[in-house]
Amino acid sequence: MQKGAIRVQTENIFPIIKKFLYSDHEIFIRELVSNAVDATQKLKTLASVGEFKGELGPLEITVTLDKEKKTLTISDRGIGMTAEEVDKYINQVAFSGAEEFLNKYKGQGDGANIIGHFGLGFYSSFMISDQVEIFTRSWRPDSAAVRWECDGSPEYQLEETAKEDRGTDIVLHINAESEEFLDENRIRAILEKFCKFLPIPIKFEDNQINNTNPAWTRKPSELTAQDYQDFYKELYPFAEAPLFWIHLNVDYPFNLTGILYFPKITKGYEIQKDKINLYANQVYVTDEVKDIVPEFLMLLHGVIDSPDIPLNVSRSYLQGDPNVKKINAHVTKKVADKLDEMFRTDRKGFEEKWESIGLFVKYGMMTDDKFLEKANKFHVLEEVEGGKFYTQEEYRQEVQALQTNKEGKLVILYATNPVQQDSYIQAAKAKGYKVIKLETIVDAAFINNMEMKWENVQFTRVDADIADNLVDKDEKNDHVLSQDQETQLKELFGQQIPQPNIKVELKGLSAEAQPVIVTRPEFMRRMKDMAAVGGGGMNWYANMPDEINMTVNANHPIYLQILQETDNDKQQKLVRNLADLALLSQNLLTGADLTAFVNRSVELLGNEKKSKIILQ
Comparing C-alpha atoms, which of 335, 421, 402, 405 is closest to residue 372? Predict the structure, then answer.
């Protein structure tokens, strides 16, 4: 029997391993199963180059629980280890056997698929174990099987033992604090999380838990649309079918494979980030992919697999590296190219998917100038009625005669709530204007960004002013009222609308236009909307009263009737009701004011009925 002290290359790191090496204790299963996969892949490589001439037999990894003995065992039929190799790779912490093997067999067989690169993965087992045993026999002819044992101190034992088959069994004696890892459901869930797509069959309780040949590892030419749909179901069993997908397959200047799916997004925007999983040679690493995938694509679903992304010892945080930036740029380009192709080859289908696609496109245009450059060709504006779509250039050609202001800017008129803003939309349409829908959660920010990035473009919400003033301020004020009538009407509105934040103006509009039109100036409304969403240094905007313009249409015939009314109280109530109706149309009448409006309306209707009865 050999006894000795484990030779740590820097300092005694066992306490660090036990407490700090991995933030998540369940990671030990990934590390140990990954090591078993490595050992199996190494044997396949040796067989492919003719060094191993024996029978491979079934190459699978088994995970076994023994609740009575309180052990968890990971077994493989890979290359195994001699006593010298155990001493070299286990006792010398941080000497990576995978690294050495990979360098030796680079470019041969399955050598490129060796997972481990750190040499510390095995020691994650001590986070949850009082004792760890290794039973191993090398693939080399006439090798003796050996048993290694350690209790988490620097002391170990290494001795010959009996083991018929080649390969390695790692036996973990679970400590009292970690008995959760003796629960079948817990182990199955961890295996399905980390090992679901490993390339060697993994069995637990006689069931294989992994798909060894997932869709992203195959060539796009081998896959049908149904294959992609089926793989999506495998990833997200309860999700609605995706809109479309992009298959990534790059081998130069970096290695990258994967499939990114565009999910269907409803107006409720019940969406989740962290739905893209990062793998390294089919080993699950993390769902934190913000450095690899552009921020605007974080709402996509799917898988990215790259051995070229550097990871720290826990494989859970990305480090800065040129390859990460290259991969990020490549993903952006692939998405832009796919969207551009869809727009050019099937514009109708593209437009039908715009409700979901538009969220990604707009977000990308705001945050990535290279994407913006390409997206300007396929970003579309949807008209509020009729469902017609325009690119920015098409919209400009369609409306520039009517919707170019004195400064030479294209005025894009938009609605955020077409139902609520219908009267304003109809007034704009009556003047020949085209109003588009901008009603998603990103549109407020998108408008502000595009006004800076698009040349000579200004966005104006359709209810930001009366229709006559939406493109250019119309200073005309011709109306049918006499000077005395105008003065009297101004006084009536002044008495009923004393609020300083409401600016009342008499104007001569069409007799068919509403008697009172309430608008909220574009700039101030935008500031308040952004403050309500973003907070921060703009909180004071959110707390300010709404700035309101109340335009009284002095050409509406109802005012001649009101001015002829001899009952001053009724006259004032009629004026107040007209003002309140306009405020109500903009959701600006609430609380006690709304209650007073309802009561006043009932009273006026009752008085009208009494008058008719008396006249009869």
Answer: 335
